[in-house]
Amino acid sequence: MTRDLIRPRARSVANSLVLQLMGLLLTGSALPIAISYLSGKTPDITSEQTLATVAASCIAAVVALLAIRKVTSFPGTRHFSYIIPAFSVTFGSAIGALLFLRVDYASVMLMSAFLLGTLFIFMMMHLGARAGQSFYVVPFGKALELVDSEDANWLLLKHPTLPENDDRTPIVADLRYDFEPEWERMLAAAAISGRAVYHSKQVRESLTGKVEIEHLSENGFGSLLPNSAYRQTKRIVDILVSLVVIPLLLVPMLILSVAIRLDSPGPVLFRQRRMGYRGHDFEVLKFRTMRTRASVACVEAAIEDAITQSEDHRITKIGRFLRRTRIDELPQIWNVLLGDMSIIGPRPEAIPLSEWYERELPFYSYRHIVRPGITGWAQVSQGHVADLDSVHTKLYYDFYYIKNFSAWLDLLITIRTVHTVLSGFGSK
Questions:
Q1: How far apart are CA 316 and CA 327, in angstroms?
Q2: 3-class SS of residue 285
Q3: What is the pTM assigned to this prediction?
Q4: Are strands 134-137 and 171-173 parallel, antiparallel or unpaired?
Q5: What is the mean pLDDT of each run of 10 residues along the chain (428 residues)?
């Protein structure tokens, strides 16, 4: 068996959900009990304390694993960077629940389960990453465009026959291509046998995090509206988070307001009409980061005025810090509470820019199908852009977000936003 056939099987085994669950249940129960014995604290296996600790550690580990697998199913994610945060949150929540319910637990066992579970998932994902992802490619149409990508191992099929000794590696084909009958029969046989056969467009989306829409009828949403149930849940979460966060931010925002006024003359808040949900404009709120300037009436001048350039001379000293850390966006939490925006979604554009983009870019207005956000998939993947070519790419990211509209993608964006804020990625 060749190395190319061994690698996908090794990856499949390492990334097996069943194997990972079994390992976590072991590290959450038997091994912590054994460590307690070795540390001199002999636990009573039948006691309520031991049973509560084992149950809490197993539930926390399993929830952490499911969250990691869900979040890292999106492109551009590094599996290892989510393991410790996920386990820390779930085990911290487990401890909080035990304390709230006043249930006695064994701290040594719980800590052992946390460390062993984290180490086990690190090891399994390391093995899976080393094995790499492989695909068989039917060498016709747009499927050939994938071969130049370094995001996976691409194995070209030279003949219309199913690969022997390997029934796990998926097959990728341009399913809109007009194949010869023997290739069509091979693809049909592959699907009937249970082998995964993917359309090249979907594979490209999963590897790049972008959706290129050529016709609205081809977007694959089933409906042009994103997940309606999650839209309602998301709005409730936005309201609850806003009500909790606004009182906590009042004092820091007052301090920032004083600093902005001392740094340069002008109002504390920057107000601008932007295009929002379902194409309705609204007034967005931000901390002012630029020197005040006169309004312009000419369309071309308005577009130029709305674009922030690299090292823009209009930015104030404190404004540069606010932009790099994204603190200037904090007042938009009020827009979220009012329903103009969401915490996560495509960034709203100034009216002149939005109208310009709509004239130049097909389907641009479709991004308004969801509420704009303080942060979004394009912001954590691409950063700030303004020229048409970059905005076209940004549009692909926005369409990917709309197509994969879910709590898991919002969770991933939230985590990556923290990294964006700390690193200053994409700021201008």
A1: 14
A2: strand
A3: 0.72
A4: parallel
A5: 42 64 79 68 69 88 87 69 86 90 85 87 72 80 82 85 79 90 90 85 82 57 68 93 94 94 91 92 93 67 63 82 90 96 93 87 85 92 74 86 88 86 69
